[in-house]
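As a representative case, we now present a protein record of this kind.
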Amino acid sequence: MSDPYQNSYHHSDADGYGTYGEGDQDGYGYQTDYPPQEEDAASDVTEGHDEDDQMYEGEYQGIPHPDEVKAARRAARARARGPTAADAVSELQELAEQYEDILEDCGHGRFQWSLFVVLGLALMADSVECFVVALALPSAEKDMCLSKAEKGMLGLIVFLGMMFGAFVWGGLADQLGRRKCLIIALAINCIAGFLSSFAQAYGFFIFFRLISGIGIGGSVPIVYSYFSEFLRMDKRGEHLSWLCMFWMMGGIYASFTAWGIIPHYGWGFSMGTQLQFQSWRVFVLVCVLPAIAALVGLTFMPESPRFLLERAKHDEAWMILKQVHDTNWRAKGEPERVFTVSQIKTPKTQDDEFFEIQSSTGTAFQRWVVRSLTLVKLVLKNVASLLARDLRLATLLMAGIWFTVAFRYCVFVMVCCSYYQFVMVCCSYYGLVVWFPDMIKHLQHEEYDSKMKVFYRERVERFHFNFSLENQIHKEGEYINDKFINLEMKSVKFENSLFEDCYFEDIKSTNTFFENCTIRSTVFYNTDLYKEKFVDCKMENTFFNHTKKGCHLNFEEQNDVLIYLVSFLGSLAVLPGNIISALFMDKIGRVKMIGGSMLLSAGCTFFLFISFSQATIIIWQCLFCGVSVAAWNGIEVITVELYPTSKRATAFGLLNAVCKLAAILGSFIFASFVGVTKVVPILLSCVALLCGGLLALKLPETREKALL
């Protein structure tokens, strides 16, 4: 018996297609059994029957034959293309139709659901990456003694990494393969995330978060491109929308783990004074788990057969499609069903200059340099092709929509937060839930500041302070021969005051400063009141002994569980929007879903004029997230459907990078409005949403379009 996998590949110069195996003129051959059997090896199923006597068992029940269903679907796709296009089908369209027919034969079942879970975990890792900094920062800033500028830079650098990663990994996925690039990207994210949890210095921590962002940046472009190429047309919109549920699950996972880990300071450990592993570092470490799970699952998943066909790897593509077919039908209780594909048309192999240098040509390093430069050239060439005549309009429209979707989040965030919060949150454009933990904390601080006590011209002499001082301002006071021993100072400021013959020992301070004070004959022993906390002060005969180094803040302060609860509610609020978009994506279409969601979100922006209490913020968060998620789902679905296989991941990565760039630009353009006015940002947010919604209505509908 001949080897069934050794199929010849004949190239035809006449039509620009190669023929894989032999078949009919449609280029999609079927046969009664594959691989060929011996004459005496007939199946038990057909034993005792003549071919002329066989009859479709559903004929008497009025059930249409599967071939009739397929023919009806082909006719519907031809009608969607129009009469002119149906008569002159392009080579690319013919390949797309053929691949659609193969996926229909393979069915939808266990294989797609297994891949759904694995890729969902990768998408979940992307979501967790956006939440981890916002949830860990309130505790990390205490441990690392971060200034406002450093906190803003931390959020910005992570986001820059994700932007760069989306562009790079999207381009590479169209050249090297979806699975391979996703594995490398997730591995980088896992390693960098693990190392960042142990980084003690701010510089190392921000460096590893940058690398982690570059790695996870490739998740979204590759995941959607990868999964869409295993879905037939009537399942694509629904299941890509269901896939978005994992982004919600990532937010819930991050919120619950932060809630359960960070407040428990005893979960950390220390190794001397050089390595301190606090509970927030445990949380950062746990956030790597979804990426690790996705990485393990991907080792059992195959490459996209649609990509392999594009790279002329016909045998590998056939084997994977057969695996999909057998896995699905075996799970449905029909293991006897045979994969009947005997030929697959493929596009003519283009001279892409991505050649393999012979081992005798130059050194290994020289060969690597040439391959790398060639790969960069191909990626940039693919990016430039997105602005070719046939794709220019779609690319510009999609770029405008992605830009406005990200831009509107930044405009809203700046309404109520401080500058560093604004920069950090805008950089987590995916949802307002990333901002709300800091927003709640901001409101709590405002309430805390409103209860501040102010003392004027008090004179205290020979007094022993052994109790904590909190939320106080002392102006023009005089402290003579006083002792401040074993106490905590939280949010305390001394202005224009005199300290003479005083003694400070074992002091822990939080946000405590001395401004324009005169300090004479005073000793500071074992305190964290280092000289930077004395602003424009005059010191005479003053000594600092055994000053504590670093940031020694009050680690016993309890974290407000409301911060984590708000993040959880914000993530859970998208559940109704996700369900509705999944159920109706293929019914009402992608364009109406995007446009309608963005226009409704524009109306929701006016709720910002309502009072900014904590309850109002939470209600607004849930409403906005629930409405706007449908637009995100529709944008991601239509992006993979507008572009051909050779450019799909590249286009998705570029548009995803544009989205992140919009958030970064918004953070700088509107920073001047922070704390000044709310009217202008709200109006700009509404305009951005309206423009994005109107642009979406100009897009072509793709729900009955086979993937090119």
